[in-house]
């Protein structure tokens, strides 16, 4: 019996056993911004000095009195300090030799593009800031933003930060209902939107959605509307509430003094993706956030003065806030933003953009990489990718197979890959390789950033040894951490700080290997319990994606009379592969071979699409509802609610619901 348990444990421990190791080349290491391994040790010994030293490179209006005031779960960083985030991101560069350097390169969808230098960005931000002031927006007032990926979006955020008005960006793909909910939660005074946004040659009617949302959102007094698509999206302007951007902002004065903000004043509110349930209004403050995002950006992406850096996220998500806008601009870096999608006008679009601008650093998501894998290597091979130097990923665990594909076909085995783990709540990347120091392993986010301490705990809060899986927690505060949930401080305490008192509960499962590397296993809810064994959905998915026929897979645990939970797999196939019972059988055996018989899926279900959030994460909770034959939970954050409804019908037709 003991032997059997031991054998099973060993088999499970072999999960994700990854022996491939990719150390930085000598050449890369030598030139890296951070190449002294001592940095980890230093930060561990005196974390406050570590951050304080780096804070010296920000521009302060008044220096701080105290680095950290930590009364769990309340943290205050750089207590007593005053600064302005926009001054740090824009004005100080505009006043330096960077004045004529590109701050934002914008690649629009229907052939449009634009470059904003730091000098031009400063003027445009000031105009927008003055326009907001003219509408009565004052320090502390919330401004809701519902726009597509045009330069006016970061301009609006920086304008809000300049005058101390917290912004609340609502992703342009959200419905009127989602927008209304978020406006009401934040009690926004002004809404900045656009007539419409381009989406693969079609128009998304933003202003029409906004009008509908505002019918139930009385806090909004004024609406600024950017004309982006023109005739394609006629808008009913409601006077005197609605004002055109080109009437108001373009005509405003281009000088505006920065508001002196306390380190702890609110910079913005941002709602989480809603993958696990009702979105939460995450609150970020000024100094610590600016420091955390800029330091990690410089260290992890190894950004150089002349680099073109491209983060492909939407500014509607935290990745866009921290790593398109605030982090890169604080570092005086050229940040590229792209309005369109992966495959418009064709499947080579990303690679064409890389070649067009000579992109040096590319930061994207595993879901995009898996899509590229499905489309094959002909697309990237048609373009010159030799400018690339560092590749990044974020958003979900990356399957080792996808990592290898990225490494070989995009990085041409030359570029380090930084797999960055973090959350809306953490504000900044917390677990990631440092490309000049860390030997990477495909599928592992490697180690906590210097100054960050993470642990993996069991149910009772005891550290789990190497190889064991458990709950990922953070045991120390960090500068960019969120400070509360807007309007719900009780939820802040309960959801994040009560499960393991005094420690931050991430909600993610993880495993640490013998080398101290972290392997993210997905959300705690996504860990299955099969005959008493904890198996992560991600591990089974990775085994499936490892099979030649499979493009993408989503795995869930479903109630099983004998085993407690059985494993159900939803699989999309690569182009040209035909679904068959034989293939189902083969996939089940493939997983059993890779992981062990315990992990063999009970059902495999082929589908053309998987339900995803608008930030492109697989929504397993809805698949669980389908497999359990239950009513579907909240679908408002889905990219396409049709996908899940169709899937439910098909699943029931195949008689898979018990
Ligand atoms: P909600 O909290 O509303 O359910 P969400 O967690 O999807 O939404 P985000 O804050 O955008 O919203 O996503 C953070 C989560 O994404 C992490 O908790 C983790 O599960 C996942 N994640 C992000 N980056 C990585 C990564 N590099 N490796 C593994 N997982 C990642
Ligand atoms: Mg979350």
Structure in words:
With 658 residues, the protein is α/β, with parallel strands linked by helices. The strands form eight sheets. Strands 12-11-8-6-7-14-15-23 form an eight-stranded mixed beta sheet, sandwiched between helices. A seven-stranded mixed beta sheet has the order 5-4-17-16-18-19-20, sandwiched between helices. A four-stranded antiparallel beta sheet has the order 21-22-24-25. The longest helix is centred in the N-terminal third of the chain and has 17 residues, at 118-134. Magnesium ion is lined by residues 272, 276, 423, 507. Residues 272-276, 279, 317-318, 394-397, 419-421, 423-424, 445, 506-508, 520, 523, 615, 617 line the site of adenosine-5'-triphosphate.
